[in-house]
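Lab notebook, bench 4. Still working through the backlog of constructs that have no structural model yet. Next entry is a single chain of 418 residues. Request: give me the structure tokens for it.
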Amino acid sequence: MILSNVSVPLVGMVDTGVTGHLEDASYLGAVAVGATIFGFLYMGVNFLRMGTTGISAQRFGADDFDGLRVALGQALIAALAIAGVLLLLQAPIGKIALGLIGADAKVSGFADQYFSIRIWSAPATLANFALIGWFIGLQNARVPLIIVLAINTTNIVLDLILVNLVGMKVDGVALASVVAEFTGLAVGLAFVVRELRAHEGHWIISKLTTVREYSAFFAVNGNLFVRTMALMFTFAFITAQGARQGELILAANAILMNLQFLLAFALDGFAHAAEALVGKAIGEGNREALKRSVALALRWSLIVAVGFSVFFALSGTSIIAILTDLTNIRETTTRYLPWLILSPLVAVWSYLYDGVFVGATLAKEMRNIMLISTFVIFVPAWYALQFLGNHGLWLSFMLFMASRGIGMHYFYRQRLVA
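Model written out:
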């Protein structure tokens, strides 16, 4: 799962590298704008991955192979329904998104071209979320890796062919993404067929075609959606408040947040493992296996978190120098580097417990803790600490991450091991 996660940023780097060598900087800006729009859209529906994992893991632990088919079928149907809505509303979505970003006319024109092509990847992208979540629930991390590598490899190869050889511009980058997502879907469905043959069962059609049979699915995923929206608000708030402090702070925070996301990608690998192990233990009714799974995932998460803190402490200034050659941005970013060094040790708990709670399908508790951490802890803390400037913003973010970890630890003790 760690390999799957860290391969994702590579595609963005190739998209940037390919368009960054074209004759007009507007192409690079357009791809960046388009990628931001789809990042926002797809992060908002990532509950399809998380919710499917927890439900599938519990049914796998209970040897409910009919239920596994229901979990897969409901997730895929929901994915295609949401994708259909996105396709039907693509014109107003694109117009509103480009208006909110507010790029200049030339960049917006190319970005609109990118959006109008890449939006057709939505059915495959959302279906892939469901497939990856389902396979993780079955404790099969190899297939998600193969799916992600198929998507990313296809995307990179087509980027180079369509732009460098065929002569396409942002349309080539967008088309590469569409073909790559459908390639990943084809690979994933091939593995689904093999997996279902290994776990004999029956498709219960009524559970796929009757709306009320989706109540459990939407109860979990609706809460996860609200939780994700609160998390997205937090990161948008950090960007907005940084921008109000000037372009240097905005640039410095962008660099540090990219490194924070790298940390999240790595630690999420253990969270995904916890999702599968915890869900299976709950499905089996095995409390000791549940405790062992959490302890094992926590131990490895802490080891990696400490490693990141040491890495950032020893190499942070060098990484910053690689990411920017502007002296004033380097100096500003380095001033706030200690927060990045501290971050892994504070954030590791929330990342791990996200996995535990997904596996346990405690989506309502995840929602409530995220809402409290965002609107009761983070936002008030910023307004109380804004006299500290950007240090106050980062301290508020640390309190936000700590609050999530503490809150989920409390509910873990109360609901799962009490």
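Notes after review: The chain has a mean pLDDT of 87. The radius of gyration is 22 Å. Flag for follow-up if needed.
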